[in-house]
């Protein structure tokens, strides 16, 4: 069903309201029969998008409310979260930063609601990767991350005015003879302290 403006060829063009066969509805602008311009799309499952479209795809600025209560507000390119945006997760965590292909990618800040801790740094395809800072209530860690875990040189900075330098080392997996089929879980990196100092300017970018 469609009610709204049409052009000379009878295509939806201008402002209109449509109910789609699957039960979704759209109210907004059309160009030559396609959703283009600003509009609001309501999904039958309770999700809602309000923002810009280009040729039926979310493109430009827009806000998407997901059925689980989470929400994304930011840039879209061809139906994908891409550019800069803020995501509020269902558990109350937030991510603000760069996106590519629907994933956290580039520089961004992730805040953990439960602990108040936040990760400020690089992301690759949705995973913490590269130089970053992990900020807790009374201390923070500065270093590099690989596949979501700290690895290599870094330092803990304490609010009382001292630093603990060291590195995260990936422990070697002990091989067991019996169960070769089962892949062991990757071990957590181990923190090895090298020295305690007063505050220093070292940052993970120094090694690049």
UniProtKB/TrEMBL annotation:
<keyword id="KW-0963">Cytoplasm</keyword>
<dbReference type="InterPro" id="IPR003409">
    <property type="entry name" value="MORN"/>
</dbReference>
<dbReference type="GO" id="GO:0007286">
    <property type="term" value="P:spermatid development"/>
</dbReference>
<dbReference type="GO" id="GO:0035082">
    <property type="term" value="P:axoneme assembly"/>
</dbReference>
<protein>
    <recommendedName>
        <fullName>Radial spoke head 1 homolog</fullName>
    </recommendedName>
</protein>
<keyword id="KW-0969">Cilium</keyword>
<keyword id="KW-0282">Flagellum</keyword>
<keyword id="KW-0469">Meiosis</keyword>
<feature type="compositionally biased region" description="Basic and acidic residues">
    <location>
        <begin position="1"/>
        <end position="12"/>
    </location>
</feature>
<dbReference type="GO" id="GO:0031514">
    <property type="term" value="C:motile cilium"/>
</dbReference>
<keyword id="KW-0966">Cell projection</keyword>
<keyword id="KW-0206">Cytoskeleton</keyword>
<comment type="function">
    <text>Functions as part of axonemal radial spoke complexes that play an important part in the motility of sperm and cilia.</text>
</comment>
<keyword id="KW-0677">Repeat</keyword>
<dbReference type="GO" id="GO:0051321">
    <property type="term" value="P:meiotic cell cycle"/>
</dbReference>
<dbReference type="Pfam" id="PF02493">
    <property type="entry name" value="MORN"/>
</dbReference>
<dbReference type="GO" id="GO:0005634">
    <property type="term" value="C:nucleus"/>
</dbReference>
<feature type="region of interest" description="Disordered">
    <location>
        <begin position="1"/>
        <end position="29"/>
    </location>
</feature>
